[in-house]
Amino acid sequence: MNKPPRVLTIAGSAAGGSAGIQADLKTFQELDVYGMSVITALVARHTVTNKNVHAQTIEAIEAQYATAVDQVGVDALKTGMLFSKEVIEKTTEIISESDAQSVVIDPVMVGKLDSKLLEDDAIEAMKDKLIPLATIITPNMPEASFLLDERPLTSVDDLKQAAVDLHKLGPKFVLLKGGRLKGPAIDVLYDGKELTTLEAPRIDTIHTSGAGCTYSAAITAHLAKGKTVVEAVRLAKSFVTTAIEYGFTYTDKVGPTYHAALRTQGEQHKIIIN
Ligand code: PXL
What is the pTM of this model? Predict the structure, then answer.
């Protein structure tokens, strides 16, 4: 039997199961890669302290990474919620010494329920140290705006210009997700030379919690399986669109996407590429 590619996520644990480490590992399993995790923080509402984020120590982060590398090895990795400057710096070190062929940086900053997932003084380290190591970065519109000194983004043309400018930070590819625009769900991909747009139908739902984590995890899995970046993004967008379409209405609040939807519902959304 062929061994599946080995894929690591360095991210926060989302106790509710929709986002972060939980979304990443579910996505890895669905796409048949071997998933491993380094947990940077626990995101969980604490009724006594009213604290949302329980950060892990640098020592705990190092120990988790050493375990993954020593026991298995890493072919591709992604980052999600890193929370602090110190964790970003440690993650930069980890990536620099790792054998991972593909590095997906999802510059997570705020969650849908407004938990603060990145401290204010961490943004410069993300821009100067982490992003230059990326095969691809996957910001949404608020994250892209934040990385570009609060530039307003309101149209596909704005996204194209922003993708070109974000590329100057040093990643090989920029995928700027236009989910917050009206109309079809259009993302812009830039490799330093060519701008590509990827379009999926907009699904009218509030159940999109963890969609960004799921999307970047699916890109990482497909890169680990040897797909090109454009093909990995196309397949991942189709995966996350179906996961959103079959998202769960467990409560009347923002709910999780359904990671197994593509396998169990068998619907492959066609992505229009231009
Ligand atoms: O969806 C962004 C996100 C990422 N990582 C963790 C989260 C969230 C959203 O809540 O909790 C750990």
Answer: 0.96
